[in-house]
Amino acid sequence: MAIADGGKFYMPPANVKKMMWDLAYLPAYLGDDGDYVLVEEKLAVENDLQVDCKTILPEELAVFSGEIMGEPWGLSPKVCHWMAERGLGERWQVTQKDWYGRRNVCEVLSYLIKNKVVADRRILPQVCNSLGEVFERARYDRWLVKAPWSSSGKGLLRLEEGVSDKAGKWISGVLKRQGYVMLEKYLDKVEDFAMEFKATDQGVCFIGWSCFSTGEHGEYRGNYIGDQRNIEKRLIDFLGQEVLKQLLWHIPVILQKIFPTYRGYLGVDMMVYRGEDGRLRVQPCVEINLRYNMGIVALFLSHKYLDICSEGEFTITFYSIQGKALEEHRRLCIEFPAVYKNNRIKSGYIALTPVSETTQFVASLKCY
């Protein structure tokens, strides 16, 4: 959303600001000894994991002038301007905007179709530059309209048998603000999963699979945490081992081609879906996330903080009523007390971020 706006002083909606505040501590689980996570206030986190990364307030940054670099959750004009002003990073380049648009999905899928990794051409999105194009192409069947730059579940509209007046206004608004929309065939989804990577000077390196769940409107809900072999087995049961081998070979190649100068973490969201013939197939590029993402958090949690014999779910939960998060947190602590082994959670529930009377977003783990 900040990239689409393009401004140095972009102000996110109130609910996004609240999410930023409540979940500010979460990146600490990605850090190492000597790293700091920036928070607005130093609240206590009620779990017994020994996290090496320390907290730091904005006013304390000046003490470390020239000694530390900023590594944000994701780049945007606003965050790059903020870091550059403090000597923590470089300014935003206008050419970077296209890295984050959905149009790159078309290039990935075209490459995979050409190389016979997938055969169903229906999964290829269509770029629509006008409302008339959407009307013409979405006259029949079910479709998804996606804004080129959007946040989880926000820039997505489902069409059922044509474009209603309300849908037309929404699409027109996106076209006016962002220039085009993506039109995708609605698929019979069976499972959400992703491939996670780190782009380095040596190339785009695969770091793990992630399985995640979303809500009715596409909003993120949670990730499986546990041994990678469990995820691989599940995906092989759906798709077969050869499909996974093809993805592991081809996806890093096309990502390196599209993003040769990007450095950092990224993920490619994918989907197992049921084709018209009833067979399970893969949609291997639903979305590209050039940033840290919840799947990468799940990988770090699995590798660094989960007992080797345990598995569970990492979730982000929103509570619309203040006080409800604290009430639910206390209930879960009693009903599913945490059991630790060698600074790793073995079973039970823990909150990963601070929970107070005013908290509305909670990141948590529930293990067994």
Describe it.
The chain has 368 residues and is α+β, with helices and mostly antiparallel strands. Helix content is 29%, strand content 27%. The chain has ten helices and 15 strands. The protein has helices at residues 2-5, 14-22, 77-85, 103-114, 131-137, 165-178, 228-239, 241-258, 294-304, 324-335; strands at 36-38, 54-56, 126-128, 142-146, 156-160, 181-185, 188-200, 203-214, 220-225, 264-274, 280-289, 312-318, 339-341, 344-351, 361-367. The strands form three sheets. It has a nine-stranded antiparallel beta sheet with strand order 11-10-7-8-9-12-15-14-13, sandwiched between helices. Helix 4 (103-114) packs across helix 8 and helix 7 packs across helix 8 (241-258). The radius of gyration is 21 Å and the shape is globular. 31% of the residues are buried.
Brief summary:
This protein has 368 residues and is of the alpha+beta class.
SS summary, helix count: 10
H and E string? HHEEHHEHEEHEEEEHHEEHEHEEE
Q: Mean of residue pLDDT?
A: 94
- Helix/strand structural class: alpha+beta
The parts where pLDDT drops under 50 for at least 5 residues are none
Percentage beta strand: 25-35%
